[in-house]
Amino acid sequence: MGKKFQAMRGTRDVLPGEVEAWQAVEDTARRLSSRYGFREIRTPLFEATELFARGVGDSTDIVRKEMYTFPDRKGRSLTLRPEGTAGVARALIEAGLAQPDRLHRLYYLGPMFRYDRPQAGRYRQFHQWGAEVVGTASPWADVETILLLVDLLTGLGLEGLVVKLNSVGDGTCRPAYQAKLREILTPRRAELCADCQERLDRNPLRVLDCKVPSCREIVKGLPPMLDFLCDPCRAHFEAVKSGVTAAGVRFEIDPGLVRGLDYYTRTAYEVHHGKLGAQSAVGGGGRYDGLIQELGGPSVPAVGFSMGIERTLLALEEEGRKPATEVSAIYLARGAGLGGEAARLARRLRKRWTVYVDFEERGLGAQLKQADRLGARVALILGEDEAKAGEASIKDLGSGEQRRVRQADLEEALEQTLRGPVASA
């Protein structure tokens, strides 16, 4: 017997029976993104390491500890993407689309990679839905991305969501805040964890994001960035709060919210689901007006977010909910020798519905049990008598009611059955 292989730690298989929930989330994300006027973009799974070092920030835990980086055969340093925004920015720059006078509404779906300790809903290969609005500094673009994220999560059935908002300022007002943090924290340097001691030198805002309990206690006594905002940043933040309020979304201010990426400016936000415990964020994002210029493009403002699909599915599970999946599947049970007739009918019906065809010539009872296991809504029974009469039997697997109809009328009869209980024949 050969070696038995297992999925690598921090990765997992998504098997039939579970993948349908993933597809429902992804389909909902695509549909809602389209309704908001966003178009899909697909970027490579790996990029030049420098893209993330410059874009995400070399003071972040992602760059310093969590990236999957490797040399290719020519010795170039490549990295599996740990997040999606830097790749989107690179793609727009490379295609000549990142211009101050051009607006782009983009979304992406796909796997990301971070070498981190696996825990509930968090994996080393994980999946995100993200959206970016590139080409405008308007606070209303910030509002729209927040609403898009909230609308997806509530549309999937999540309740009790908490939207957290903050502003991290910009290049005008943030340096004064960073200097203040250094002034306060330097005398307490020895009380900080080793990572935060290094963050204090590189980017003291990262201290606010530390999860070590002792550091979190120290952070509680620090002044908020909101007290240091310049007038334009303050006006921008007030407009965001006003827009979110006008749209009917409740939020709370979280002065410690800085997100885990260095490219954020002004607005930062997260959406939390309380039933996920300490690591309760399902998604989040913010404005990154300087990223495209940092990566070699022109000065183009942008705002966006990402949502963890694993975290979202875990939150749905905690609430006892499942994303809506297709319930119109039909199982075509057939009698012996009727494989060709069944194939013909199935092909015809697949123009409108999902149709499972039984491959084995088993008894009707066994075929109906298989239909139930597959989650079919209706069984279409094609026996010898039905075939000779040019008919088929429709059995509603929910109510158990059954009737025979002419094959010429199948579409209309199936539509009626799938809409509701079948009337007695």
Overview of this protein structure:
With 425 residues, this protein is of the alpha+beta class. It has 15 helices and 16 strands. The protein has helices at 19-35, 49-55, 61-66, 85-94, 139-155, 174-185, 194-202, 213-219, 231-246, 291-294, 309-318, 339-349, 364-373, 384-389, 410-419, and strands spanning 39-40, 46-48, 69-71, 77-80, 104-113, 125-134, 161-167, 251-253, 265-273, 281-287, 302-308, 330-334, 355-357, 378-382, 391-396, 402-406. The strands form three sheets. The protein has an eight-stranded mixed β-sheet with strand order 1-5-6-11-10-9-7-8. It has a five-stranded mixed β-sheet with strand order 13-12-14-15-16, sandwiched between helices. A three-stranded antiparallel β-sheet has the order 2-4-3. Strand 9 (265-273) and strand 10 (281-287) form a beta hairpin. The chain is elongated and about 90 Å long. The model has no long low-confidence stretch (mean pLDDT 89).
Record field, number of beta strands:
16
Strand content: 15-25%
Count of helical regions: 15
**Largest beta-sheet characterization:** 8 strands, mixed
What would the principal axes of the Cα set say about the shape? Answer: elongated
Helicity level, as a percent range? 25-40%
Q: Whole-number radius of gyration?
A: 27 Å
For the biggest β-sheet, the strand order reads 1-5-6-11-10-9-7-8
Rounded mean pLDDT is: 89
Instruction: List segments where confidence is low: pLDDT < 50 over at least 5 consecutive residues.
Output: none
For the terminal residues, how far apart are their CA atoms?
57 Å
Secondary-structure content class: alpha+beta
